[in-house]
What we know:
The chain is an alpha+beta fold. 21% of the residues lie in helices and 35% in strands. A hairpin with a 2-residue loop joins strand 1 and strand 2.
Amino acid sequence: MLSGRTPLLFLVSGVLVAVVAMRVLWTSSANPGTYMLSGEATYEGKPIPYGTLSLRPDAEAGNRGPASVVTIDRGHYRLSPERGHQGGSYIARIVATDGTRPESADVDNSLFAPIVIRLTLPPRDGKWDFHLTRSASDG
C-alpha cells in the first residue's frame, strides 16, 4: 500500500531527474568538444597592453569548428572552454593597442597593423603564446 507521500516523492524525483538531464544536454550541446586556450601575447618582448585575438577555423584546411574572439589584457588572454576551439587549423588575427582611450575617432592608438597567423591547435585544453615582432607586423 502506498502512503500519501509516495506520489509527491515520485513527482519530486521525476522533476530532479528532468532538471539534471536538461543540464547535461544543454552543457554538452552548447559547444561540444571545445577546449580552453590561454597564453601570453607580447610585441617586441613587452606585454601587449590591450587588444583582441580572434580565432577563425581555416576552412581551406577543412576545419569547420567554431570561431572565437577573446580580449588580450596586459599581455595575457584566456579563452574559456564554452567559447573555445575544437582543435585543427585556425587563422589567428591579433589587434593590439597601447591601452589608452583615444580622444577622438581620428586618433589611432594601435601598436601595429593587425597580424594574421595560421596555426594548428591540438584537440585539448592548452597554452599558446604569441610572441610578435616588428618583422611579423611588416607582412
